[in-house]
Amino acid sequence: MNDPERIGTHLTPEEAKEIHKGFMGTFTLYVAIAVVAHALVWFDKPWFPI
Q1: What does residue 47 show for φ and ψ, rounded to 5 degrees?
Q2: Fewest CB within a 10 Å sphere: which of 5, 20, 34, 50?
Q3: 29 phi/psi in degrees, rounded to 5
Q4: Are the C-beta atoms of residues 21 and 14 closer than 8 Å to each other?
Q5: Residue 40, CA distances (Å) to 30, 33, 45 in order
Q6: CA 39 to CA 17: how far, in whole Å?
Q7: What torsion do the CA atoms of 35, 40, 42, 44 make, to the nearest 10 degrees?
């Protein structure tokens, strides 16, 4: 029950790294889509003229 590899969590460091990798990939895709969406809206109706 007291596994030193699982202190403070129910994941091993390898499992945590795998989950983090998946999260970062999904987050990066989400941010990329948001940037493209904002750029398309700005090209249509610029809210901050440059």
Answers
A1: -95, -10
A2: 50
A3: -65, -45
A4: no
A5: 16, 11, 9
A6: 33
A7: -170
Sign of CA dihedral 18, 22, 25, 28: negative
What is the rounded average pLDDT of the residues 3-32? 87
State the Cα–Cα distance between residues 23 and 48, nearest whole angstrom.
32
Q: At a CB cut-off of 8 Å and minimum separation 6, what does 41 contact?
A: none
pLDDT at 36 over 80: yes
Q: How confident is the model at residue 13 (pLDDT cuts 50, 70, 90)?
A: confident
φ, ψ of residue 7 to 5 degrees: the values are: -75, 125
Amino acid identity at 12 = T
